[in-house]
Specification:
- By secondary structure, the chain is an all-alpha fold.
- It has 5 helices and no strands.
- The protein has one domain.
- About 70% of the residues lie in helices and about 0% in strands.
- Helix 1 (about 10-20) packs parallel to helix 5 (about 65-75), helix 2 (about 25-40) crosses helix 5 (about 65-75) and helix 4 packs across helix 5.
- The protein is globular.
């Protein structure tokens, strides 16, 4: 069953609520991505995150609220490091 969340506030507040209420799902998703990068690209999770960083500027230009929400999700879920 998919968990339904009804969230309100700033992008960062929405992200934090999303991360804290869906902590288990966020961690499970990150574990899946880590396995996929290792399996299909033969790269570590650290390397995958490093390769993703240059795209952060483009995402911020497209919609800076999206980055704020992702940061909130990470904080709410207790995920360490940079998105």
């Amino acid at each position: 069953m998919i968990k339904k969340l009804v969230l309100k506030g700033s992008p960062r507040e929405i992200g934090y609520a999303h991360g804290s209420q869906g902590k288990r799902e966020v961690h499970r998703s990150l574990e899946t991505y880590e396995k996929l990068f290792r399996g299909y690209q033969q790269i570590s999770w650290a390397e995958a995150k490093e390769r993703a960083l240059p795209h952060l500027t483009a995402i911020e230009k497209y919609d800076h609220h999206m980055v704020e929400e992702m940061e909130g999700i990470a904080k709410g879920a207790g995920v360490n490091g940079t998105i």
